[in-house]
Protein: Thymidylate kinase
Amino acid sequence: MQKNKFIVIEGLEGAGKTNACICIKKILNQYNIKNIILVRQPGSTPIAEEIRKLIQKKFDTDNFIKETELLLMYAARIQLIETIIKPALKNGKWVICDRHDLSSLAYQGGGLGIKKTIITQLKNLFLKDFIPDLTIYLDISPKIGLKRALKRSPLDQIENRSLNFFKKARKIYLKNIKLNQKIIKINANLDLKTVTKNITKKMSNWLHKQVI
Ligand code: Z5A
Structure:
């Protein structure tokens, strides 16, 4: 008997988060876990999807200041958590979430240079002790990730940032996985088949340990 869990996928652009979410859902199904929802941040509620569109938009005569961007990420996150994720968990559903608060630490903290203390204050204020049971971090070189993302679609205002922005974001991700035992790192530079195989293996090992 396994208690339902909150699972997060993290990583830079083109790391393969979308594929990983589908892969994890399949693994859960194989364990006879069918009550699953897939969500993404920012997004997955009508209000949060509007915030997502706003954040990704390029404006001719205005730019987001970094604090505005951080607050919008948090607004979308709280909207999703309170209206979808928490009720789903309460109703026994498993939740797979494409990105969570570690993205804010990496992008707005590492990439844009907002102090960690400010982001931590927001986290403590709004998320409190609500933390994922497991985070799968897909580690990818920014060059490879951006190349993949570019192949898929034109880059939005965040994706258009310098390689240095993404290098700094990756550094924060890597620093955090060392501090948090609930994060599993996967090498996402490898081909899709190998990445999927490695996610399956690590996810299965983790699931075995969750038996209560
Ligand atoms: N953002 C933020 O700044 N702060 C925050 O707090 C949050 C978000 C929550 C939206 O996120 C933007 O919001 C994002 C970060 C910011 N902006 N940027 N830049 P998103 O997760 O929705 O957007 P994304 O990271 O740009 O998604 P993505 O590019 O779609 O990444 P992905 O889901 O990891 O990749 P994918 O769609 O699975 O794969 C991309 C392509 O690569 C696709 O054609 C795949 O078939 C291919 N692919 C995937 N894996 C492989 C392997 N292993 N080999 C070869 N090809 C592969």
